[in-house]
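I'd like us to work through together how a protein chain folds, taking it slowly. To get us started, please write out a protein record for me. Go ahead whenever you are ready, and we will take it from there:
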Amino acid sequence: MRVASVHARQAPISAPPPPVLEVRGLTKRYGRRVVLRDLSLTLEPGQVLGLLGPNGAGKTTAICALLGLVRPDAGEVLILGNDARRAPQAALRHVGALVESPTFYPYLSGWENLAILARLRRVPERQIATSLDRVGLTQAAQQRVGTYSLGMRQRLAIAAAILHEPALLILDEPTNGLDPQGIVEVRELVRSLAASGQTILLCSHVLAEVQQTCSHVLILAHGEPVASGALADLLTGNRTFRLRTPERARLHTVLQQLSWVQVLEENGETVRLLIPPERQEAFSRLLVEHGVPVLELCREETTLEQFFLTMTEADTFASGEPRRRRSIWSRVRG
């Protein structure tokens, strides 16, 4: 009897989709000055990343490098797996951006302004209505842009940025110069886009807005990333403690042995400390072992603003030059 050999076909294993944005070791110099040093980040579909930092931290340079407006000295930018330097058209067609103040023809309607962009980008006309609806401007589509409020113009600019349905939306200070009503409008729009699955890179100085909008943050200081990760993890993991003890000298003896504890502030018997989450029990045990009397030891709730200030504060030399210091949180990743 002849027995037929049956081989089960194995389904091919498909590779996972690439991240929407992947940045590896991005560095930019102007002469001897390094304005961006070794920036790396990964942005997955649906994430909203807040890019934060003081003035001069390198945020604008980073955004310009992502958009191909500045050529980095080192590093890679990959958008859906496409190298933005070697294949800029293939990479940047997946990106929509709002950088600085938008400019439109004031004597044309919102629809007509988008129609011009749609023709230039070869985008189907039906996308105009979709974009206007997503930003809440359907009712004002036929009004001249010259009659729009600042908030409406900013929403129209975002409609222009998402007209071609990009995988990545970059927003640089989208609420800059807006009144409170305009800020609320843009904030709600960004949250709505994020809820619909839009991947967003948001650069803003309004930390309260970032905390309400972003799922992840990356903080730059002096051109270097000092903290990054999921916002909830960073704020939960940022253990700021308030300790009260009448024996400050004895406490300092203990602190001198602990490189992983950072003193934030001292005022009389009260000391504010930054302690890594995994070392909290060890710290309490050391206080007991060294006989440090504790009147109070409690954790402080942390806002994004407090966390940001902690991560970006710099010591200063007598010459006035900022001194870079490696934060104990600089390796936090989400």
The CA atoms of residues 88 and 156 lie 26 Å apart. The chain has a mean pLDDT of 86. The chain has two domains: 21-230, 239-301. The first strand starts at residue 21 and ends at 30.
